[in-house]
From TrEMBL, chain A:
Gene Ontology BP, a term: exonucleolytic trimming to generate mature 3'-end of 5.8S rRNA from tricistronic rRNA transcript (SSU-rRNA, 5.8S rRNA, LSU-rRNA)
Keyword Acetylation among record annotations: yes
Chief place where the protein resides: cytoplasm
Name the UniProt record assigns to this protein: Exosome component 7
Keyword annotations: Acetylation, Cytoplasm, Exosome, Nucleus, RNA-binding, rRNA processing
Family label: Belongs to the RNase PH family.
Provenance organism: Denticeps clupeoides (denticle herring)
Residue ranges the record marks as coiled coil: none
Subunit structure: Component of the RNA exosome core complex (Exo-9), composed of EXOSC1, EXOSC2, EXOSC3, EXOSC4, EXOSC5, EXOSC6, EXOSC7, EXOSC8 and EXOSC9; within the complex interacts with EXOSC2 and EXOSC4. The catalytically inactive RNA exosome core complex (Exo-9) associates with the catalytic subunit EXOSC10/RRP6. Exo-9 may associate with DIS3 to form the nucleolar exosome complex, or DIS3L to form the cytoplasmic exosome complex. Exo-9 is formed by a hexameric base ring consisting of the heterodimers EXOSC4-EXOSC9, EXOSC5-EXOSC8 and EXOSC6-EXOSC7, and a cap ring consisting of EXOSC1, EXOSC2 and EXOSC3.
Entry's Gene Ontology cellular component terms: cytoplasmic exosome (RNase complex); nuclear exosome (RNase complex); nucleolus
Compartment(s) where it occurs, according to its Swiss-Prot or TrEMBL record: Cytoplasm; Nucleus, Nucleolus
InterPro entries registered for this protein in UniProt: ExoRNase_PH_dom1, ExoRNase_PH_dom2, ExoRNase_PH_dom2_sf, Exosome_comp_Rrp42_subfam, PNPase/RNase_PH_dom_sf, Ribosomal_Su5_D2-typ_SF
From TrEMBL, chain B:
Coiled-coil residue windows: none
Domain PIN intervals: 61-179
Annotated family: Belongs to the RNR ribonuclease family.
Keyword Transport belongs to the record: no
Cellular component GO terms, alphabetical: cytoplasmic exosome (RNase complex); nuclear exosome (RNase complex); nucleolus; nucleoplasm
Name used for this protein in its record: Exosome complex exonuclease RRP44
PROSITE patterns: RIBONUCLEASE_II (PS01175)
Organism for this UniProt entry: Denticeps clupeoides (denticle herring)
Superkingdom of the source species: Eukaryota
Gene that this sequence comes from: DIS3
Family annotation (Pfam families): OB_Dis3 (PF17849), PIN_4 (PF13638), RNB (PF00773), Rrp44_CSD1 (PF17216), Rrp44_S1 (PF17215)
SUPFAM superfamilies, sorted: Nucleic acid-binding proteins, PIN domain-like
UniProt keyword list: Acetylation, Cytoplasm, Endonuclease, Exonuclease, Exosome, Hydrolase, Magnesium, Manganese, Nuclease, Nucleus, Phosphoprotein, RNA-binding, rRNA processing
Domain RNB: 461-791
Length: 291, 960
């Protein structure tokens, strides 16, 4: 991942700041940077969202396609993740440079989101064992400025909120052959319940404390970070540790508690924002990529 | 301004796809009115004083019809009275989606500058574009788009200087739409009330089609079972409960029909349908779903002739007739079924006569179509008294389940019944021959006159202007598509060239001209009239290889040795200058006149010599020479009435031209098949199944002769040997019979078939190359050949075997129809001829013997007629039919095939719609019948539709 070089003096400065709950850009330890969210930015997807967090910029598109359910879970649909690290984000991604990161990210996202606690996968089933909706979630990294997971998770939640799956119903003929029929009204569609979709809060251990939404400089000062996915109720759905350093159980516990608290605080305004945006309907001035 | 249009669709593989299209809105779409100063339209279409006098709307106004008005009332819109109509893009798109023929008609009308029809692309206009709202159906959205556009027009025009008077009238038959429009302040009328308000032409009202709600207001009694919905039918067909097939009504019995079930050859079968209830409102040629009845309900086809004569307009029960034939033997019972639903209607406009209602001042009348397979149609008209005795055209609007007859509306008055022009028009309409004048769109693709050959053209072509090329055709031919040349080479071999008009140079693939020609398929020759496939400028001028003018040609040049063996074949596009256009007779005279020794005559003699060798070779291989009595009318130059009639004569020169055309066709067929084995357009003539020859063998046997039919060669040989002393016409009669045993030759695409053999010509491969002016198949062959020799570029459709196969189907259909139309025209002229001649006594021969009748051919007129020995209302004479022979014994006299008889021939005009040539026997004399020959010895040479029945192959002497 994109890294910056930080001198020893800078590190000490950051470290001391964090100890006093005062970060380089003026935030407290549990504060996020400024965040912009816009949904419905890519018209040929079924749902999309663009999130910029600081200078991190991610675009998420959701495409719904009809597929066959997994044999083990015949009455559920599923989600597929793909993360594309655009060379726009950082020159390191050029060629196949971003592939490894992309894979790591998408595996993590799969763990976090594709389970029936997060998304109601039963609602994606069309006919058990035969047809279900497969949601392809494509993440495009446009710019990396630290804390990608949080940005991506928010963008995914927003995109899923924005997703409209065409309504279909099954018609059965006398021989039992089933056929999918499509409603001819483009407004006639199903929406997902995104209430339980978790958000990821990544906590970076800096010194004895941990910070939310670390910048690249802060990241360079940290030896280990913990990814915590929480729902709006504060239920932790996934925890993962990154980085070479070690964390003592005490601080892991503390970090999880912080993650839950921050996560809960993140969900409520996010949902309000998304609903407010939707209520604007067609009158909304689209910003898109040039804004 | 950019908007996007989004919709979801299902792909063929079952996936679901979201499609997003960019949709651009503009503000430079003009309103098209002369009044408007705001729009900078250079040549506005809509007139300033749009004057259609209507009592509802006295001021000038423009009309905006909605989709259903166009779909149902296209006949009205096509009337010259209706002008200044605005067609919204929304409406046109819907029309196109729902009915291709109506769309084509409306496009043609828009192209017609006199109509002042304007297309307004409202979907791309910034102010009239609307997006679909949530919960709004596509139809509602379109209706709203129409209202928005109509409102915009109203406001837009009222702003224009001097446009204050001008109004916009929305025509819709939808009550809901109308109310909403009224709320929006739009002037809106129902189509019916508007048309009724027109002062200038009250007759227009008759052409109003009945809309569905009017269709329902009949008497409450339900006569028919409801048709099943399409989804149920499809499910039923899938599971085998119902069968899908084409409905063929019986010509003789209106209560009977046959459904030919679609499917593979093995499961192809016929289902008999009997009784009004079971027919369930299906019409001839409809695609229907039928349900088979249980075996005990099966019946046999009745032999009774039943015509729907129920003069009373209303629904009197005719059920009693239905049960007449239930007592038939079990062995001849046929699978019987009933129609449960209609999959596809194949209605067309029908020609026929009005039977005026007995009640005076009634506006509902019955219409009797000429085609006996079509039931009578109830129409509403106020001008019935004017229409009696006229042929009229009627379109069916629907057949509600509580009505005895389908409902329709009057479209067009074709003229006096029996009139020459009227009947010709009827023949063309009934045979689905496209005969309207070419549209502006088509004509726009013609080369600009004056037209000349440029240096550029000559550079890419072989310059053959120096050669002594000449053409030989029937007299009066203006569309000369072939010419020949002949010269001796230095090595003592001969060079023979066949030059065919290069029509594909003028008709470029895909344009309107090409599409029109592809649709017409063939030029139709009627007696005294020709319906061109391509506009006259091409057919009679630029493409016609007339003498002394330079023309483009597609040449096929052979080097041949003395015994007419081909040494080398060469195809090229060329420029030629014909030295002479001769008739067959003129060419013959030149060949025979020993005093003439000019270049042309020399060439003709050389060609003639080679042609004889070619013919001998062909006959050796087993080519058949068949015969059918063909007549030619001598037309009075003033009245265009037939004054005399004689059978066509064949000369040596006919056969000379024919031989080289055959040779060219075969050479070209080989070439294009070699180059394009998957998509060559070829012509085949399948060998008939052996059972077809039964009647021929039997007939010959009765005269003690043996006909071998194992191979074409054997047949040709035995026909040549079949002579009877003192009966010179016998051989011709046999050949006529043999002709009737043949199959129809058809076009096909080489990639779709494996059997290429041409039976009649005994050639393994054959195509049509030599008449591109009058056959579309030849144009395709020209294009293929041009690509093969690198003279022209190809295009995707040419190489698509499925598209080619579809095209072949159309060409085969058009050719068949053209032939029927030709025969019908001959039959009609024969009638005219006999009308003027009165009663004649003529010699004839018995061509067929049937169970209750004999069919007689009069060679002098090539006329065929049936003499019946049974009649409905008279006691029948004693008749015995024997299948051996076959022979028929009537009151002691036995009729054999080929017997010579004497008959009186006269025109029977007692039924004005189906006039007949009536034949009655005079010799031999049948005693029982002598007291009133007219009632018993009736005949039927019923005009018009008779020709369709016979599946005879007619070989034209000058068409190869």
């Amino acid at each position: 991942m994109a890294t910056v070089q930080v001198s020893e003096a800078e590190k000490v400065y950051i470290l001391h700041g964090v100890r006093d709950d005062l970060r380089v850009d003026g935030r407290g330890c549990e504060d996020y940077r400024h965040m912009d969210i816009e949904t419905d930015v890519v018209s040929n997807t079924d749902g999309s969202a663009k999130v910029s967090l600081g200078y991190s910029d991610v675009l998420v598109g959701v495409k719904a396609e009809v597929g066959k359910p997994r044999p083990a879970l015949p009455d559920q649909g599923y989600l597929e993740f793909f993360v594309d690290c655009s060379a726009n984000a950082t020159p390191e991604f050029e060629g196949r440079g971003g592939e490894e990161l992309g894979l790591e990210l998408s595996n993590t996202l799969y763990k976090v989101f594709s389970n029936k606690q997060s998304v109601d996968l039963h609602s994606l089933c069309i006919s058990p064992g035969e047809h279900c909706w497969v949601l392809y979630v494509d993440v495009l990294l446009l710019q990396c400025d630290g804390n990608l997971f949080d940005a991506i998770s928010i963008a995914i939640k927003a995109a899923l909120f924005n997703t409209r799956i065409p309504k279909v119903h099954l018609s059965e003929d006398e021989e039992g052959g089933k056929e999918i029929e499509l409603s001819d009204d483009p407004y006639d569609c199903v929406r997902l319940n995104v209430e339980n979709v978790p958000c990821i809060v990544t906590l970076c251990k800096i010194g004895h404390r941990h910070v939310v939404d670390a910048t690249l400089q802060e990241k360079a000062c940290s030896v280990a970070s913990l990814l915590i996915a929480t729902t709006h109720r504060g239920t932790v759905t996934c925890v993962r540790k990154f980085g070479g350093g070690s964390l003592d159980p005490e601080s892991i516990f503390e970090m999880i508690e912080t993650g839950k608290r921050v996560g809960k605080a993140l969900h409520t305004p996010l949902m309000e924002l998304l609903k407010e945006e939707e209520s604007l309907g067609k009158k909304r001035q689209k910003v898109g990529f040039l804004g | 301004m950019l908007k996007s249009k989004t919709f979801v669709k299902k792909t063929r593989s079952g996936g679901i796809l979201k499609v997003v299209r960019e949709h651009y809105l503009r503000d430079d779409i003009w309103c098209g009115s002369e009044v408007c100063g705001e729009c900078r339209d250079e040549s506005p279409v809509l007139q300033r004083d749009a004057c259609m006098e209507s009592s509802l709307c006295p001021s000038p106004h423009y009309l905006i019809p909605d989709t259903n008005v166009i779909l149902h009332q296209i006949d009205i819109l096509e009337d010259p009275l209706i002008k200044n109509v605005i067609f919204l893009q929304t409406v046109l798109q819907e029309v196109r989606h729902r009915s291709a023929p109506v769309y084509k008609r409306i496009r043609d009308a828009i192209h017609n500058a006199d109509k002042h029809f304007y297309t307004f692309t409202n979907e791309h206009h910034r102010e009239t574009f609307i997006e679909r709202e949530p919960g709004e159906s596509a139809n509602d959205r379109n209706d709203r788009a129409i209202r928005v556009a109509a409102r915009w027009y109203g406001q837009h025009l009222s702003r224009a200087a001097g446009g204050g008077e001008l109004q916009v009238v929305l025509l819709t038959d939808d009550q809901d739409n109308k109310e909403k429009a009224e709320k929006n302040g739009i002037l809106v009328y129902k189509c019916e009330e508007y048309v009724k308000s027109l002062i200038a032409n009250p007759e227009l009202v008759d052409r109003l089609a009945l809309t569905s709600d009017q269709n329902e207001i009949n008497s409450g009694k339900v006569l028919f079972l409801e048709h099943l919905p399409l989804s149920k039918i499809q499910a039923g067909i899938k599971s085998g409960i119902y069968l899908q097939g084409t409905f063929h009504a019986s010509r003789d019995n209106y209560l009977e029909a046959t459904v030919f079930v679609h499917g593979e050859a093995a499961e192809r079968k016929e289902v008999l349908i009997q009784g009004l209830q079971s027919l369930n409102r299906a019409l001839h040629q409809d695609v229907v779903a039928v349900e088979l009845l249980s075996r005990e309900c099966w019946v046999s086809p009745s032999e009774v002739v039943l015509q729907d004569d129920g003069g009373k307009d209303e629904d009197t029960g005719e059920e009693e007739v239905e049960d007449k034939n239930k007592s038939a033997e079990a062995s001849i019972l046929k699978p019987t079924g009933r129609v449960v639903g209609i999959i596809k209607r194949n209605w067309r406009p029908y020609c026929g006569l009005l039977s005026q209602s007995n009640i005076k001042e009634a506006t509902r009348h019955l219409f009797t179509p000429d085609d006996r397979r079509i039931p009578r149609i109830r129409i509403e008209t106020r001008q019935a008294s004017n229409l009696v005795g006229h042929k009229i055209m009627v379109v069916i609007d629907g057949w509600p389940k509580n009505s005895r007859y389908p409902n329709g509306h009057f479209v067009k008055n074709l003229g006096d019944v029996g009139g020459k022009d009227t009947e010709t028009e009827v023949i063309l309409l009934e045979h689905d021959v496209p005969h309207l004048p070419f549209s502006q769109a088509v004509l726009s693709f013609l080369p600009k006159m004056p037209w000349g050959i440029t240096e550029e053209d000559v550079k890419n072509r072989m310059d053959l202007r120096h050669l002594c090329v000449c053409s030989v055709d029937p007299p009066g031919c203006t569309d000369i598509d072939d010419a020949l040349h002949f010269r001796e080479l230095e090595n003592k071999n001969f060079e023979v060239g066949v030059h065919i008009a290069d029509v594909s140079h003028f008709i470029r693939p895909g344009n309107a001209l090409d599409q029109e020609a592809a649709n017409r398929g063939t030029t139709v020759y009627l007696c005294g009239k020709r319906i061109d496939m391509v506009p006259e400028l091409l057919s009679s001028n630029l493409c016609s290889l007339r003498s002394d003018v330079e023309r483009f040609a597609f040449s096929c040049i052979w080097e041949m040795n003395y015994s007419a063996e081909i040494i080398k074949t060469h195809f090229t596009k060329s420029v030629i200058k014909s030295k002479a256009s001769l008739t067959y007779a003129e060419a013959q005279l030149r060949i025979d006149d020993t005093s003439l020794n000019d270049d042309i005559t020399q060439s003709l003699r050389g060609l003639n010599r080679l042609a004889k060798i070619l013919k001998a070779k062909r006959v050796e291989k087993g080519a058949l020479s068949l015969s059918s009595p063909e007549v030619r009318f001598h037309m009075d130059s003033e009245t265009h009435d037939p004054v005399d009639l004689h059978t066509k004569e064949l000369m040596e020169t006919n056969s000379m031209v024919e031989e080289f055309m055959l040779l060219a066709n075969i050479s070209v067929a080989r070439k294009i098949y070699e180059e394009f084995s998957e998509c060559a357009l070829l012509r085949k003539h399948p060998s008939p199944p052996p059972s077809n020859y039964d009647i021929l063998i039997k007939a010959a046997k009765s005269k003690g002769l043996l006909i071998h039919t194992d191979t074409a060669k054997a047949l040709a040989d035995s026909l040549n040997l079949a002579e009877i002393e003192g009966f010179p016409y016998f051989n011709t009669l046999l050949r006529i019979l043999a002709t009737r045993c043949m199959m129809q030759a058809v076009y096909f695409c080489s990639g779709m078939d494996s059997d290429f053999h041409h039976y009649g010509l005994a050639s393994p491969i054959y195509t049509h190359f030599t008449s591109p002016i009058r056959r579309y198949s030849d144009i395709i062959v020209h294009r293929l050949l041009a690509v093969a020799i690198g003279a022209d570029s190809t295009y995707p459709d040419l190489m698509d075997k499925h598209k080619q196969a579809t095209l072949c189907n159309n060409l085969n259909y058009r050719h068949k129809m053209a032939q029927y139309a030709q025969r019908a025209s001959v039959a009609f002229n024969t009638q005219l001829f006999f009308k003027s001649k009165g009663i004649l006594n003529e010699d004839g021969f018995i061509l067929f013997v049937r169970k209750n009748a004999i069919i007689i051919l009069i060679p002098k007129y090539g006329l065929e007629g049936t003499v019946f020995f049974e009649s409905k209302d008279k006691p029948s004479p004693h008749i015995a039919f024997s299948d051996e022979g076959p022979t028929l014994t009537v009151e002691g006299h036995t009729f054999f095939m080929f017997d010579k008889v004497k008959v009186t021939v006269a025109l029977d005009a007692s039924n004005i719609q189906h006039q007949k040539i009536r034949m009655a026997l005079i010799e031999p004399h049948i005693t029982v019948t002598n007291y009133n020959p007219h009632n018993i010895l009736t005949s039927g040479s019923d005009l018009g539709m008779r020709a369709k029945k016979k599946k005879k192959k007619k070989k034209k002497s000058h068409k190869y």
